[in-house]
User: Fold this.
Amino acid sequence: MKVPQRTHTCGELRKSNAGTEVTLNGWVETQRDHGGVIFLILRDRYGRVQVVVNLEDSEKLAKKTKSVGTEWVISVSGTVTERDPANINEDMDTGAIEVQADSIEILNEAKAMPFLITDPTSATEEVRLKYRYLDLRTDKLQRNLEVRHKAYQSVWNTLSSLDFFEIETPFLMRSTPEGARDFLVPSRLHKGRFYALPQSPQTYKQLLMISGYDRYFQIVKCFRDEDLRADRQPEFTQIDLEMSFVNEENVMDVAEEITVKVYKEVIDKELARPFPQMSYREAIEKYGVDKPDLRFDLPIHNVTEILGESEFKIFAKVKKSGGIIGALCVKDADLSRKEIDNLTEVVAPVGAKGVAFMKVTENGVDSGISRFFGDEAIAELLEETDAEAGDLLLFVADTARIAYPSLGKLRLHLGQTLDLIDEDKPAPAWILNFPLVEYNEDEDRWDAMHHPFTAPMPEDIAKMQSNPGKVRARAYDLVIDGHEIAGGSIRNFRSDIQQKVFELLNMDKEEQREKFGFLLDALQYGAPPHGGIAFGFDRLVALLAGMKSIRDVIAFPKTTSALSLMDGSPSEVSEDQLKELGLKIINTPK
Assistant:
């Protein structure tokens, strides 16, 4: 079959095209038979157009049109005509015209759809993932992938204009610990040995700096074999970049340039520069999380000193044990007692035992735990929290490791349920001065908070032996609307400092040589000071598209259990393939 060549797309015809003879190719979205006339809505990725078939013009054309089903692929030739003003469809870009069909050619038929393309909510997510090639026809996903394409082009153009080289790094590399399990690839030529798929191009981009390339970037696939959460994928995309002879401000400046341009060029939103900055400690103590949503103002107040000496035994016990009492002041709150009691369910998963409260009135406070506190303490509390009549004070008291995350989760819950969040006003911010390491109680060791290549603050290097928990990292995270969008650091460019970090992470010299000997060697051949950052491209696109899940901006995503319902991967392989690789499957009890 010779495919008729379209003259226009389905979304481009306007009143100015009236009288033009056209050929359109696309999918039949709907068919409406009005007796002597059939109306078809023809769709492609550019839009929709109404096609009118007069059944009296041609018996052959009428018969063919009546046979056409939903989602059949057809070619229509005809003439563009203006619609009567009363019949203009304001919901379609082409709503002022229609195409009077002279001929229709059926290019391919379609089975009955497992769900309506015009209403993807007519099926579960599992069904839509199984038939992902059909889900990708929906308006939402076609728009999302257009946003993804535009974001990719914006980032690529921005970095190219800033003298960055796009350089590809290998997908088959050696296994190195970077925080999650590697996906391993067995070698046929070297039986018993394995490649790993990169969790990131971290070591390669540092080697490129040592090689003198100065400014590198790559929009690259990365792989992590980790227990998945709702918004994680085993394969994901990073905007990866590295720069030589830089400090934190230089890298952050480039990251802001990328972010500002992509928001403006893709969704026409202005972001003011420079982005606000706060320390990791400030973020935790004020918002309960290191990726705060700053689109609404509901800070945490530490009221330990104000309320810790009181008749309320729970608060007194927490203060005595070195914990904290944190408060949220919800302005003009209209929550029932049942709704307040249900807030315990919000903080329970984090470990908090409950949420206490006070209601602020014209006469001070009443209800809740207010009776346990004297007038002086209440006055200090109201001043500290800026509470006024009609406000609600909520409290969580526990160790800092439980209280702050609990209050952070409670804050976000209230922001969402009380409609405090301004969805149209993106709020970026930098989080700085992270701890270099965090203590792993399960394994009785220090772990890198970011990764083992992050440099410590020069003035904190002396503490690496005596007080590792107080060593700050030269690291920086970019957060937008409560999501970590990018993270980076200045790297260890001196071999001796890199070895000190490895030793802090309980890695002896033999293990250092085994896993990172190539990098340690390279650092001894004139490595320049360097640093970089990596954006989570899928999350960035999800924010631009207004999506809650990154699955909605990835063409062929996996489920939360890392399955592809469409093609059935991961799948079993034949015994011959395993034998060729020198592998044998050992079945272990579940």
In short: The longest strand covers residues 21-33.
